[in-house]
Design goal:
The chain contains 17 helices and 9 strands. It is an alpha+beta fold. Helix 2 runs antiparallel to helix 3, helix 2 runs antiparallel to helix 16 and helix 12 runs antiparallel to helix 14.
Length: 492
C-alpha cells in the first residue's frame, strides 16, 4: 500500500464528546432491549437491534473517519459525509424502533420522573405530530439541504468547527424528522395513508436531483475554499465538484427510490397484512394504531421498593456522566478551525500553509503545512519542514526554528506550534527540504492583542448546570401538582 494511502487511512478525527454520547445511547438501548426480552416481551427482533447499532456506527463513522478530516480539502469527502448523516444513519436508527428500548434502558428514576411524563405530555405530543407531519418534514428537509449548500453558509461551516457541527446537527435531525413518516417507528401512528409515502419520497428525490445537477453541471466553482486550495487525490476543483454532485445524485436517488418501490409493492400486495415489511415500522406482533405493547408499561408501573435509593443512584450517575462530558469537551481538538492561509508554487514544490481562522491572538498557534510535487501534485510525506517567525520591524531576531512533524489527525500535514508573544506584524517562514531539493516561502500576518473569545467560555459547565436545574424543577413541579402525568399512561 502506498504511503499516501496509508496516511489517509490513519487520518481519523475522533470527536470525544460525540463518541461518548453515542456509546451511552447504544448501551441504554441494548440494556432496554435486554430487559424487554428478559421480561418475556421479545418484540424487538435481532435485525432491528442490528439496524440501530449499524445506524449509530454510521453516524459515528461520518463524524470520526477520514471523511471528516478531509472534508475541508475534498468536496467529495464532505458530500459523502453528508450522505451518511442524512440518507444512511437516520433510517437505520429509526428501523431499530428506539423509543421504547431507550426509555426502558434508562434508570428507573429517570424513566419514571422525566422520560415517561415528557412522552405523555400533550404539548410534546402535539409538537411531535406537527414536526413529523409529512408536509412539514418534506419542507424542512428541502430547506435544510438547500440552505446549507448555499455558498455563504457552506463556506462558514468550512471556516469554523462550531458552525460545522451546527451544520451536521441540522442535517441529522432534519433527516430524522423526514424519515420518521417513512419508517414510522412503533409505537407512533401514521398521519397519512401508507401509499402516500411513495410520492413523498419521489418529491424528495426531485429536490435532491436538482441540487445534485447544480453541482455536476455548474461551469464555475461554487465554493471558493476548494478552488483556492491544493488539489488532492488527482482531482481538480472542477472535477471534485462534479464528483461530489454525482455522488449526491446516486446515493440520494437510491435512498429515496428503493424505499418508494418497496412501499409500492407492499401496498399492491394482497397479503401485505400478513407479511411484515421492514419499512412499515410496525412491530411484528402489533397492529396499526394499537395501544402500546405491554412491555412499554411493565416495569414503569411496578411499585418501587426504595425510591430514595433510586433517586440517589440517579444523581450519582448524572454527576459521573456530566463530569465525563466536561472532561472530554475540555480536551476536544480544534484542528477543524484551521483554514488555508497561503498556497504557493515555489521551486519544485507546491506548498500550502494552514493556520487558525479569524484574527490571531497572543499565545500558542498551531500551523499545518502540506507539501506536494509541483508537477504531479503528489504529496511528499518524506519531506523535512521547518517553521520560523521573524519580526517585520527588525527589532527582534528570528525566533528559533521549529521542526514540523506529522499531524495528529491529518497525516498528510506537517504541524508545529509557534509562540506569538507580542501584538505586531510577523512573517511566518516555511523551509522545505526533500532529497536534494529545497525551497522557502513566507507570509506576513498580524497578531492582535488578546481578546475574550466567546467560544472559549466553558459552555459545557453551563449546559450541565442548566440541564440539572431543569430536571430538578421538573421533579418539584410534578410532585407539587396533583394532576401530574404518570408513566402508566400509554406512550403515543
Amino acid at each position: 500500500m502506498q504511503p499516501v494511502v496509508q496516511a489517509v487511512l490513519r487520518s481519523w478525527s475522533i470527536p470525544l464528546v460525540a463518541t461518548f454520547a453515542l456509546a451511552l445511547m447504544a448501551l441504554t438501548y441494548l440494556r432496554g432491549a435486554w430487559l424487554l426480552r428478559r421480561a418475556g416481551y421479545p418484540y424487538l427482533p435481532a435485525w432491528r437491534i442490528a439496524s440501530f447499532a449499524l445506524g449509530l456506527f454510521s453516524l459515528w463513522f461520518a463524524l470520526a473517519s477520514p471523511l471528516d478530516t478531509f472534508s475541508p480539502f475534498v468536496l467529495t469527502a464532505h458530500m459523502l459525509q453528508h450522505m451518511l448523516l442524512m440518507m444512511v444513519a437516520p433510517p437505520l436508527i429509526l428501523l431499530g424502533e428506539p423509543l421504547i428500548p431507550i426509555v426502558r434502558g434508562m434508570p428507573r428514576f429517570a424513566a419514571r420522573e422525566f422520560a415517561g411524563p415528557f412522552l405523555n405530555w400533550p404539548v410534546a405530543e402535539r409538537v411531535g405530530l406537527a414536526l413529523t407531519n409529512p408536509v412539514v418534514a418534506l419542507l424542512l428537509m428541502g430547506i435544510v439541504m438547500l440552505a446549507w449548500h448555499v455558498p455563504g453558509l457552506y463556506e462558514l461551516a468550512l471556516r469554523s468547527s462550531t458552525w460545522h457541527q451546527v451544520e451536521h446537527a441540522c442535517f441529522f435531525f432534519a433527516s430524522m424528522i423526514f424519515w420518521w413518516p417513512v419508517v414510522q417507528p412503533w409505537p407512533s401512528r401514521a398521519q397519512w395513508p401508507r401509499w402516500a409515502m411513495v410520492p413523498y419520497l419521489l418529491i424528495a428525490d426531485l429536490q435532491n436531483t436538482a441540487l445534485s445537477a447544480i453541482l455536476v453541471f455548474s461551469d464555475k466553482i461554487l465554493y471558493p475554499s476548494y478552488a483556492a486550495g491544493p488539489s488532492l487525490f488527482g482531482l481538480t476543483p472542477q472535477e471534485d465538484q462534479a464528483a461530489a454532485g454525482a455522488l449526491m445524485w446516486l446515493v440520494g436517488s437510491l435512498a429515496f427510490i428503493v424505499p418508494a418501490i418497496l412501499i409500492a409493492i407492499q401496498c399492491l400486495s394482497r397479503r401485505r397484512a400478513e407479511i411484515p415489511v421492514p419499512l412499515s415500522g410496525q412491530a411484528e406482533n402489533s397492529s396499526q394504531g394499537a395501544s402500546p405493547h405491554p412491555a412499554a408499561r411493565k416495569g414503569f408501573a411496578t411499585p418501587l421498593n426504595s425510591r430514595t435509593f433510586e433517586a440517589v443512584s440517579f444523581a450519582i450517575l448524572f454527576v459521573i456522566t456530566a463530569a465525563a462530558f466536561i472532561a472530554l469537551s475540555l480536551h476536544a481538538s480544534d484542528d477543524d478551525d484551521q483554514v488555508l492561509r497561503l498556497w504557493q508554487q515555489v521551486g519544485p514544490f507546491a506548498i500550502a500553509i494552514y493556520g487558525p481562522s479569524g484574527d490571531w491572538s497572543i499565545g500558542h498557534a498551531n500551523f499545518g503545512v502540506l507539501v506536494q510535487d509541483r508537477t504531479n501534485h503528489e504529496v511528499l510525506l518524506d519531506s523535512e519542514v521547518d517553521l520560523f517567525l521573524r519580526d517585520t520591524t527588525g527589532s527582534n531576531p528570528t525566533t528559533a526554528t521549529v521542526r514540523a512533524l506529522a499531524g495528529e489527525e491529518n497525516k498528510l500535514l506537517f504541524t508545529a506550534d509557534l509562540d506569538l508573544d507580542a501584538p505586531r506584524t510577523w512573517i511566518l517562514g516555511v523551509t522545505v527540504q526533500n532529497a536534494n531539493r529545497n525551497a522557502t516561502v513566507s507570509m506576513p500576518f498580524e497578531v492582535v492583542a488578546t481578546t475574550v473569545d466567546a467560544f472559549t467560555f466553558p459552555w459545557s459547565y453551563v449546559v450541565i448546570v442548566v440541564v440539572a436545574a431543569t430536571l430538578y424543577l421538573v421533579y418539584l413541579w410534578r410532585h407539587r401538582t396533583s394532576n401530574s402525568a404518570g408513566l402508566t399512561a400509554p406512550i403515543s
